[in-house]
Design brief:
The chain has 459 residues and is α/β, with parallel strands linked by helices. It has 15 helices and 19 strands.
Length: 459
């Protein structure tokens, strides 16, 4: 039994953390670790970068190459990634890749914080202004100045164009690879990692002292490195012959990347709320469990990336109105509750701002509103059908006979027998005598005797 437990633990560890168990390297190896960062930058991305740095340090890699393709992401995550890169003991080269891709907004901030910045053909960087959860650009000087200082100071730390860094934020400047290289925003251009490493041959990365007692990173020719007063030096001789190892994230990253995605966590909350309400209204089908799990996962996600208080208040109000509709059947309460939930879905983005391309935010919002509206319509339809069912008069047993029409199988003077709804019953006539074969209508029940009257012929 103990052996099975240990075996299961090992298999689980291999699945979730393959980077630690499946990748081992000799000390002082000529190795370059390559990792990919794609899509929106979230806390999952932060965890990925942190793991990449740990794996590279354990492997004693000479260089980390992060291939970056992103529309941007959440401010706090971007800042933490910048800090991780700056404190890395192994040089980090951020490479905007593949050709034709982009590292907008938050991606540009990360590029400016890297020891080496590189771009592939046709790639784009820039558009660094912060945006509200609704997609509008934030013009408040408090945020703009803070983020401008953040990117400018990192550009200065790496001897890059501070003016361009400032324009990235204040004017949403965008640059292609040629302009970025010419303007001293990036150091290298290449279309693949092999070409990038070839261009690093004969270069050295120096952390040099300045006259003010601070330090700056510089990428210079190895032949000229001795001219500088440096405190750290990384030479890249022979790096073109280095072993390239692709970093493989564990299953935990893929789970967190889904959970921390703003669209997914908002979708979880919407589906969870409607499923929970549906389960309360129609118990026994498991909708309550599905709703509870979705809400639980959504709360975990929002606890990590934050949520606008107004959006949360709108959701609480919307749910309260729908619950009130279930109790009162007014009709308008459900409509108002659905509207509140739709409006809340527009605000379900991390607080207070995002460094993301506004077009991506609008696409996410469109998806959220579509899902919220569809869920609200579906739930309103179910509530309507349930209400209609409740209005139908319940009839069981003999009660179904009242109002039914049959015919006399014997003369009723005033008692006899009739056939109604395919059954024979003893009956008593309430309006004189009824001859055999005449139509009768059931008016009531007296014990096991039906009270009937003759059906008058229409003239």
């Amino acid at each position: 039994m103990m052996f099975k437990v240990r075996l299961f633990s090992l298999v689980f560890a291999l699945a979730v953390f393959p980077s630690f168990f499946l990748q081992s390297y000799p000390a002082k190896s000529n190795l370059v670790l390559v990792a990919d960062v794609n899509g929106e930058i979230t806390m999952a991305t932060r965890d990925l970068v942190e793991d990449v740095l740990k794996v590279a340090e354990k492997a004693d890699a000479r260089l980390i190459v992060i291939r970056l393709n992103t529309p941007g992401g959440e401010v706090e995550s971007v800042q933490k990634i910048m800090g991780l890169i700056e404190s890395s003991e192994i040089p980090v080269c951020t490479f905007v890749y593949p050709p034709g891709s982009s590292a907008w907004s938050g991606g540009t901030y990360i590029l400016m914080a890297s020891h080496i910045a590189a771009m592939a053909s046709g790639t784009t960087i820039g558009s660094c202004q912060p945006v509200f959860p609704t997609g509008e650009v934030i013009n408040a000087s408090k945020y703009v100045n803070a983020l401008t200082a953040l990117i400018v100071h990192h550009a200065r730390l790496h001897s890059r164009n501070e003016t361009a860094a400032e324009l990235f934020v204040k004017e949403n400047l965008n640059l292609g690879p040629e302009e970025a290289l010419r303007g001293h925003v990036v150091e290298l251009l290449a279309d693949d990692v092999e070409s990038l490493l070839y261009k690093l041959e004969g270069l050295s990365l120096l952390q040099c002292r300045t006259e003010n007692g601070t330090t700056r990173w510089m990428l210079v020719s190895s032949k000229e490195a001795q001219k500088y007063d440096y405190v750290k030096r990384f030479d890249f001789d022979g790096i073109s012959q280095a072993t390239l190892d692709e970093y493989t994230p564990g299953l935990s990253y893929f789970f967190l990347s889904i959970l921390y995605n703003p669209f997914v966590c908002s979708l979880l909350l919407i589906v969870g709320l409607f499923s929970l309400l549906l389960g309360i209204k129609t118990p026994g089908y498991g909708a309550e469990l599905v709703g509870a799990i979705c809400i639980f996962l959504a709360l975990i996600s929002f606890g990590v990336i934050g949520i606008e208080p107004a959006a949360l208040a709108l959701f609480i109000l919307g749910v309260s109105l729908i619950i009130a509709e279930l109790k009162t059947g007014v009709g308008m309460l459900a409509l108002g509750g659905a509207l509140c939930i739709v409006m809340g879905s527009l605000m379900l983005f991390p607080s207070p701002k995002w460094l993301m391309y506004t077009g991506i935010i609008r696409e996410i919002q469109t998806g959220l509103v579509t899902v919220a509206v569809a869920a609200a319509i579906a739930f309103a339809f179910i509530v309507y059908k349930v209400a209609q069912t409740k209005k139908v008069k319940v009839k069981t047993g003999a009660e179904t006979l009242i109002g039914a029409v049959g015919y006399a199988v014997t003369d009723l003077k005033p008692k006899g027998h009739i056939r109604v709804l395919g059954e024979f019953w003893q009956a008593r006539c309430l309006n004189g005598e009824i001859m055999k074969g005449e139509e009768v209508k059931v008016l009531g029940i007296e014990g096991l005797t039906l009270l009937v009257k003759r059906v008058e012929e229409k003239t």
